[in-house]
Amino acid sequence: MSGDMVVDYFADTEFGKAALKKMKPLPENFRLYEAESVQTGVMRVTGAQFREAKRGFNKGKLSVIVPGTQQTVYVVQEGKRIAAMTNLSI
User: What are the domain boundaries of the chain?
Assistant: First the structure.
């Protein structure tokens, strides 16, 4: 992963809002960084807390995942209703 995670692009999507609601409470600089369709109407959404890189190409950018802060939920769409779950048998 490269780049600066200052902006959480997934947070404003319908699935992102459902995922963040289920993931609460969230630490500062928590960002959704991966969303994957695992079957029709089901998305796996993963986020983590990020910190600024201290050296290298991304120095000063919010680009390093803080170990142990990753969270994954499944977002299910049923018609117009979207719900997030922490466990889902697929």
Answer: 9-85
